[in-house]
């Protein structure tokens, strides 16, 4: 006797359970993802093509923050509360003064933020944040 093969009886894979699992995973990842925007510092970094100005009146004001939390303004150590007064005096002398905050990579973040807040309170809105040079470390 001859066996008849029916093409209708071929094994079919039902895709519905797999699609259900994919949609459940998609919903899980959407629900667990956080969509909040993190607040960050609005800083401008110096570009490499800036030319150095030899005129001391237009020279940038550098505030150095060491790894132990000392704040140096024009060679002297100052308190974080004195930053705004010093910046106000520099801004009064020259309104185009550029302020560069040079922080050591191991500097305390609270001290860096206190200095940046002092610079902004002193009238300069966008301080340039830079890494402290190797020779000053």
Report on the architecture of this protein:
- The protein has 137 residues and is an alpha/beta fold.
- The protein has a domain at 61-136: Nucleotidyltransferase, domain 5 (2-Layer Sandwich), CATH 3.30.420.270.
- Helices cover 30% and strands 15% of the residues.
- It has 3 helices and 5 strands; from the N terminus they run H-E-E-E-H-E-H-E.
- A 5-stranded mixed sheet has the order 3-2-1-4-5, with helices on one face.
- Strand 2 (71-73) and strand 3 form a beta hairpin.
- Helix 2 runs parallel beside helix 3.
- The longest helix has 17 residues, at 16-32.
- The radius of gyration is 31 Å and the shape is rod-shaped.
- It starts with 15 loop residues before the first helix and ends in a 6-residue tail after the last strand.
- 17% of the residues are buried.
- One of its GO terms (cellular component) is plasma membrane.
Topology:
Elements lengths: L15 H17 L28 E5 L5 E3 L2 E3 L4 H11 L5 E5 L5 H13 L6 E4 L6
Parallel strand pairs: 1-4, 4-5
Antiparallel strand pairs: 1-2, 2-3
Features of this protein?
137 residues; alpha/beta; Nucleotidyltransferase, domain 5; five-stranded mixed β-sheet; 3 helices; 30% helix
Number of strands: 5
Mean pLDDT: 78
The helix/strand class is alpha/beta
Radius of gyration: 31 Å
Q: What share of residues are in beta strands?
A: 5-15%
H and E order: HEEEHEHE
> What is the tally of helical segments?
3
> Helical amount among residues, as a percent range?
25-40%
Strand order of the largest sheet: 3-2-1-4-5
Poorly predicted spans: none
CATH topology of the domain at 61-136: Nucleotidyltransferase, domain 5
Dominant shape? rod-shaped
CATH class of the domain at 61-136: Alpha Beta
Q: What's the main sheet like?
A: 5 strands, mixed
Termini separation comes to: 96 Å
What CATH architecture label of the domain at 61-136 applies?
2-Layer Sandwich
């Amino acid at each position: 006797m001859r066996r008849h093969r029916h093409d209708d009886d071929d094994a079919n894979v039902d895709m519905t359970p797999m699609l259900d699992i994919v949609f459940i995973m998609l919903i899980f990842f959407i629900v667990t993802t956080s969509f909040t925007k993190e607040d960050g510092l609005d800083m401008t970094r110096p570009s490499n093509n800036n030319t150095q100005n030899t005129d001391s009146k237009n020279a940038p004001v550098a505030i150095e923050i060491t790894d132990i939390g000392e704040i140096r303004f024009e060679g002297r150590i100052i308190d974080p509360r004195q930053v705004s007064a010093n910046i106000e005096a520099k801004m009064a002398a020259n309104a185009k003064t550029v302020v560069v905050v040079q922080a050591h990579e191991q500097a305390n973040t609270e001290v860096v933020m206190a200095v940046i807040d002092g610079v902004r309170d002193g009238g300069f809105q966008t301080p340039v944040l830079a890494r402290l040079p190797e020779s000053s470390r």
